[in-house]
Design goal:
Helices cover 34% and strands 22% of the residues. By secondary structure, the protein is an alpha/beta fold. The chain has three domains: 142 residues, Methylthiotransferase, N-terminal domain (Rossmann fold, 3-Layer(aba) Sandwich), CATH 3.40.50; 259 residues, tm_1862 like domain (pyruvate-formate lyase- activating enzyme, Alpha-Beta Horseshoe); 72 residues, OB fold (Dihydrolipoamide Acetyltransferase, E2P). Helix 10 runs parallel beside helix 11. The longest helix is centred in the C-terminal third of the chain and has 33 residues. 46% of the residues are buried.
């Protein structure tokens, strides 16, 4: 009987990539996933944490406590940014057995198996021992006393492990889309963020290595790759004379692989440069979909956040994206926005609301400002009351849902009037449909509009297939702030 594991990931897409790598290494050592995702049967539970805010840190610690409570016989490992930033503090969290920081994440499996005596006996309670830090993670005071560049970080080769090639018979959802981390670390030091201390300085994988990893995923059946990292706008600055090389990377991926769909994750407005937009115009495989790390469009708030762009930069970026050719619904733009940042008074928020209402975008991901201990923002004047932050977040979420509904209504009407259909909808996995059955499959258009179709037979058999879909109606999930088309499957693309 093989020992089993359960993995819990919080935070960014780069963390999800890291978890995929950890899972691949465990499987190479003979471990298996806990039966049907049942965490209570696992011998080892790993929490890949987020610590970007105090709330994210609390959720990560809560996840570790829940895993330990639900499965008292398992060893619980806490890793990720929270483990790098405050390893000693985590030793007091109930249920945590081992803490492994980001600098040691690439050798986490070796460290943990060594501490366990290489291989536990499946189904038998783990031997009790005092919780401890494995690896080089330092206590909080030592961490903040030095600039991240003065600490020793792993070499690029040990940080960017290739994704495991999906095995034959693997879940179709795994084969549909892969998150590929090309960059780690951040040099920006925004006033609200501690991530440069948790991830270190910006480091990037070489173009040839990224292209090879994409090629391997394509050969294994993956149809869409999402390029991700901690600050991918800095891709290449560490080996390209201080200049970003993101456009060159995407050109190489599209020229040298048979990848069907390429997406890019979060970029600052000034990082969405003309070369990137030009490539998207001429290359249909580069999906017209951006996630803009906006945080605020207001000049005063941007200055207090220490963001490296201006209000006019935000407007210029969004206007350029809006002119891109795209399927029905236009180029999709999701944006992160923080409400209630210190110094954002009523006047600044009202200006922000009005500005967002007139700018072109598709959906907002709204976060009430949450303090993060140790960041400069906690010392700024003009603190906004938590209830005001929450109220402002509700206002912007309502604006976002109204915008997303209008985009879907316009696209639906356009298709009805012209007879056009939604082309190349990449189906991902069975979902519960509006009738409550599991006979439906969800997927996304190239411009990231969600589509549900009723399967003709086995719903899982449609996963990882591209369909032509006639949109018949739309549904709205107000709680999630999301919309989707309900459509009729015409044929495969």
């Amino acid at each position: 009987m093989s020992p089993s594991y359960s993995l819990k990931t919080l935070g960014c897409k780069a963390n999800f990539h890291d978890t995929q790598v950890l899972e691949a290494e465990l499987r190479k050592r003979g471990w298996v996933a806990a039966a049907d995702g049942d965490e209570s049967s696992a011998d080892l539970c790993v929490v890949n944490s987020c610590t970007v805010t105090d709330e994210a840190d609390r959720q990560s610690r809560k996840a570790a406590g829940r895993l330990s409570r639900d499965n008292p016989g398992a060893k619980v490992v806490f890793t990720g940014c929270g483990a790098e930033v405050d390893p000693q503090g985590l030793l007091g969290v109930r249920g945590v057995d081992y803490v492994v920081g980001n600098r040691d994440k690439s050798r986490l499996v070796d460290l943990v198996l060594g501490a366990l005596g290489e291989r536990p006996v499946p189904g038998q309670p783990a031997q009790a021992e005092a919780p401890r830090v494995l690896g080089v993670a330092e206590n909080y005071a030592q961490m903040v006393s030095r600039h991240p560049m003065d600490r020793e970080w792993p070499a690029v080769e040990s940080v960017f492990h290739p994704l495991e090639k999906p095995a034959e018979g693997a879940a179709q959802t795994h084969r549909t889309r892969a998150f590929l981390k090309i960059q780690d670390g951040c040099n920006s030091f925004c006033t609200y963020c501690i991530i440069p201390y948790g991830r270190g300085p910006s480091r990037s994988l070489g173009i040839a290595e990224v292209v090879e990893q994409v090629r391997e995923q394509v050969e294994a059946g993956v149809r869409e790759v999402v390029i991700t990292g901690i600050n991918i706008g800095d891709y290449g600055v560490d080996w390209n004379g201080g200049k970003p090389a993101l456009v060159e990377l995407f050109e190489a991926i599209l020229a040298e692989t048979r990848l069907e769909r390429l997406r890019v994750s979060s970029l600052d407005p000034v990082e969405i440069e003309d070369g990137l937009l030009s490539l998207m115009r001429r290359e249909p495989r580069f999906c017209p979909h951006f996630h803009v790390s906006l945080q605020s469009p207001h000049a005063k708030v941007l200055r207090l956040m220490k963001r490296k762009y201006s209000a006019p930069d935000v407007e210029a970026c969004l206007e350029k994206i809006a002119r891109l050719p795209a399927p029905a619904g236009g180029a999709f733009v999701g944006m992160d926005v923080i409400t209630g940042f210190p110094g954002e008074g009523d006047e600044e928020f009202e200006w922000t609301r009005e500005q967002l209402a007139r700018l072109p975008w598709s959906r907002l991901h709204v976060f009430p400002y949450s303090e993060r201990e140790g960041t400069p923002a906690t010392r700024l004047p003009g603190t906004v009351a938590p209830e005001v932050r929450a109220q402002r977040a509700r206002v912007l979420r309502e604006l976002s849902l109204a915008r997303l509904q209008s985009i879907h209504r316009a696209a639906l009407e356009h298709c009805r009037e012209t007879g056009q259909v939604l082309e190349d909808v990449l189906m991902e996995s069975p979902v519960r449909g509006p009738d409550g059955s599991m006979d439906w499959v969800a997927g996304y258009t190239r411009n990231y509009l969600r589509v549900l179709v009723r399967a003709e037979g086995d719903a899982a058999a449609l996963a990882n297939r591209t369909l032509r879909v006639r949109p018949d109606s739309m549904i709205v999930d107000a709680n999630a702030g999301d919309c989707a088309f309900l459509g009729t499957w015409l044929k495969e693309s």
